[in-house]
């Protein structure tokens, strides 16, 4: 039985690790979506029409748009990084799920072996009782 308790403890740890990995995936996805929203805001502002009344005004708008384009490029890079983090977290989550499932299968096999052993012992006990009853009956008839 101590091995079963050890497997139960390992299984609990694996489940916690899987839950942590799942939470990290959710956080990474939220960060990626936040980065995408920021990028969309920059791109929407870049796509808005430009109206200028003079050359100085036009130069100011172009400088602002150049700066905005640089910010959009940086936001695009952040989206790429965030997507990479999501991929890494998904990989870690998959590994945690596989580790948990491996321990679950081991525990299931052990439980099945314990049930089989218990059934074997019960059958032996039944066989012993049956044999003893038969022996007793045959002695009584002699």
From TrEMBL:
<keyword id="KW-1005">Bacterial flagellum biogenesis</keyword>
<dbReference type="GO" id="GO:0071973">
    <property type="term" value="P:bacterial-type flagellum-dependent cell motility"/>
</dbReference>
<feature type="region of interest" description="Disordered">
    <location>
        <begin position="117"/>
        <end position="142"/>
    </location>
</feature>
<protein>
    <recommendedName>
        <fullName>Flagellar FliJ protein</fullName>
    </recommendedName>
</protein>
<comment type="similarity">
    <text>Belongs to the FliJ family.</text>
</comment>
<keyword id="KW-0175">Coiled coil</keyword>
<keyword id="KW-0145">Chemotaxis</keyword>
<dbReference type="Pfam" id="PF02050">
    <property type="entry name" value="FliJ"/>
</dbReference>
<keyword id="KW-0282">Flagellum</keyword>
<keyword id="KW-0969">Cilium</keyword>
<keyword id="KW-0813">Transport</keyword>
<keyword id="KW-0653">Protein transport</keyword>
<dbReference type="InterPro" id="IPR012823">
    <property type="entry name" value="Flagell_FliJ"/>
</dbReference>
<dbReference type="GO" id="GO:0006935">
    <property type="term" value="P:chemotaxis"/>
</dbReference>
<dbReference type="GO" id="GO:0015031">
    <property type="term" value="P:protein transport"/>
</dbReference>
<dbReference type="GO" id="GO:0044781">
    <property type="term" value="P:bacterial-type flagellum organization"/>
</dbReference>
<dbReference type="GO" id="GO:0005886">
    <property type="term" value="C:plasma membrane"/>
</dbReference>
<dbReference type="GO" id="GO:0009288">
    <property type="term" value="C:bacterial-type flagellum"/>
</dbReference>
<keyword id="KW-1003">Cell membrane</keyword>
<keyword id="KW-0966">Cell projection</keyword>
<keyword id="KW-0472">Membrane</keyword>
<feature type="coiled-coil region">
    <location>
        <begin position="13"/>
        <end position="45"/>
    </location>
</feature>
<keyword id="KW-1006">Bacterial flagellum protein export</keyword>
<dbReference type="InterPro" id="IPR053716">
    <property type="entry name" value="Flag_assembly_chemotaxis_eff"/>
</dbReference>
């Amino acid at each position: 039985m101590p091995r079963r308790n050890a497997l139960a403890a390992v299984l609990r740890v694996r489940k916690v690790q899987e839950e942590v990995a799942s939470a990290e995936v959710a956080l990474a996805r939220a960060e990626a979506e936040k980065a995408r929203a920021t990028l969309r805001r920059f791109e929407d502002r870049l796509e808005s029409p430009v109206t200028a009344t003079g050359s100085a005004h036009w130069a100011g708008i172009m400088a602002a748009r150049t700066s905005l384009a640089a910010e959009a490029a940086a936001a695009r890079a952040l989206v790429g990084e965030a997507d990479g983090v999501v991929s890494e977290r998904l990989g870690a989550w998959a590994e945690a799920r596989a580790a948990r499932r491996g321990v679950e299968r081991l525990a299931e096999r052990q439980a099945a072996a314990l049930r089989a052993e218990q059934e074997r012992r019960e059958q032996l006990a039944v066989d012993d009782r049956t044999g003893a009853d038969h022996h007793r009956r045959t002695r009584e008839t002699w």
